[in-house]
Structure formats: C-alpha cells, structure tokens
C-alpha cells in the first residue's frame, strides 16, 4: 500500500517534470514597438523601487521553481503526522539483531547499555 502511494507521487512528479521540459520556453517579454507620443510606459517591478529591482532575480519562469510550486500544491492537503493507509492493516516489520555486548544494568534507573551490529 505504501509503495503504491509513493509510486503514484513519483509518477505524477515525473509526468509534471516531463510536461515542464517539453513546454516551449518563454521569457515573458513582449515584442517591443516604437513609443508614440502620449503612450504610457508601464514598468512592473513587483512593488519595489527601481533601485532594488535588479538585485532580485525573476525566477517565476525557472523550471525548478515551477516544479517546486506544483509539488507543493500536490502536497497541500497531506498531513505527515498520519501514517499512510490509515485504517488499513498495520504493516508488520521483523528484524534480527546481533548483540555484541550487554553492559551493566542499573536497578534504580533501569538503564542498560547494548552494543549491536
């Protein structure tokens, strides 16, 4: 169950990455034309003064930024405190431990030391 949920997110991410890579790249620049008298010049600098605008790169068209935003939106409703498959059967995990040494046990504090490999 966990593997299928992870593979669904993985496949969705790969699909989105593929779509982002095949889309034509645009810079968002409009064809420039000669300015006529009476034309208004509109400069969109994101509310910053022109003095500070060149310091901040415009990464809104960067593929990594777009991909990150898409993945963030996919995981908006995800609560990482809940285990996957809530309500399904619990997944039992078994392991073997080879104990190399077992240190002294404190009777008062119930503390012991174990070295495992």
Stretches where pLDDT is under 50 for at least 5 consecutive residues are: none
Q: Helical element count? A: 2
Share in helix: 25-40%
SSE pattern: HHEE
How large, in whole angstroms, is the Cα Rg?
28 Å
Structural class: mainly alpha
Structure overview:
Helix content is 28%, strand content 6%. With 117 residues, the chain is mainly α. The two termini are 30 Å apart. The model has no long low-confidence stretch (mean pLDDT 68).
Any descriptors?
single chain; 6% strand; mainly alpha; 28% helix
Kindly summarize this structure in a few lines.
The protein has 117 residues and is mostly helical.
Please specify the SSE layout and strand pairing:
Blueprint: H1 2-22, H2 63-74, E1 99-102, E2 114-116
Antiparallel strand pairs: 1-2
Helix pairs in contact: 1-2
